[in-house]
Amino acid sequence: MNEQRERRPRVAVVFGGRNSEHAVSLLGAGSVLSVIDRDKYDVVPVGIAQDGRWVLASGEQRYAIEATVDESGPALALPTGEASLVALSPGRIPEELGTVDVVFPVLHGPFGEDGTIQGLLEMAGVRYVGSGVLASSVGMDKEYMKAVLAAAGLPIGKYAVVRDRDWRLDRERVLKEVQGLGWPVFVKPARAGSSQGISRATATGELAEAIELARAHDPKVLVEAAVEGREIECAVLESLDDAPPVASVPGEVLIRDDHEFYDFTAKYTEGHIDLDVPARVPPEVTERLKSMAVRAFEALSCEGLARVDFFHTPDGGIVLNEINTMPGFTATSVAPQLWAAGGLPYPALVDRLIQLALRRSVGLR
Q1: 226 has binding-site annotation
Q2: pTM to 2 decimals?
Q3: Is the pLDDT at 93 greater than 60, yes or no?
Q4: Catalytic amino acids?
């Protein structure tokens, strides 16, 4: 009994995944694994290969933007309802690795951030960091995210949805409808992140090419009217004491001159952006941004953490662009930097998220 009480909580850090953000996930996982207090937690690194197989990460695993999950470790299974990891080695009896108390899914994009792994963990009865099935799914699908945000009375920009069937069967009508947004427009996969597959179009010919580029990532495409304004981001964190969620200080993303917009290269290659924290806006704008960020978090029923992205327009208005339920999570990513600027350094942020997950009940809540 004493031994059970003294056991450290076991945290499985899960990374990789079956999508184009596989390598981005490895960057975040490497950062998380480097700061978790090993005296406080028993840590198990788990990689999801690009074909969907789960493996126990080896000591040779590289956590870099050009890396993939090292598949040399034992294959893993998470039996439904047992909250434990099992190692599966050819020709050997499955080996019980022990109960998993919390999964930290440092996963982005489809099959990771979209409610799928969250549903698996719910079925297995395992607590996890971040939002649940519904919030993760709605947050990943930009069409439904915008519908929920608009229903909550939050200001969003003009957009159009290009569905697979409509594009294949009635392309000219789709192009005509999208042109009603004006130029330029930004074309993006409806269910992807890290600015993958996004491009800017200024004419009909470019629009068709941009839609095809986005469709390489997702058959459903979102086209957004350009919003003139400064890009300002605000992070949100659930409270440990049942108090309302809290928002970080806002920060402005300043893109260097060699980028038309905040694309993948700008996000993940050093030296392409600056983050001005706190954002240089009037105090009343800061409070509006923080209030809207928390409202967006609650509108989607988010848990744990999120990052909310805004445009601050020249006339003083605010447009909510999107919410990310598992934002980039290296120590130098925007959300961790915003919290560090407010006095919560990266190691403490990681610990806070694990503690939030440990307090969570399993099942419906």
Answers
A1: yes
A2: 0.89
A3: no
A4: 21, 194, 333
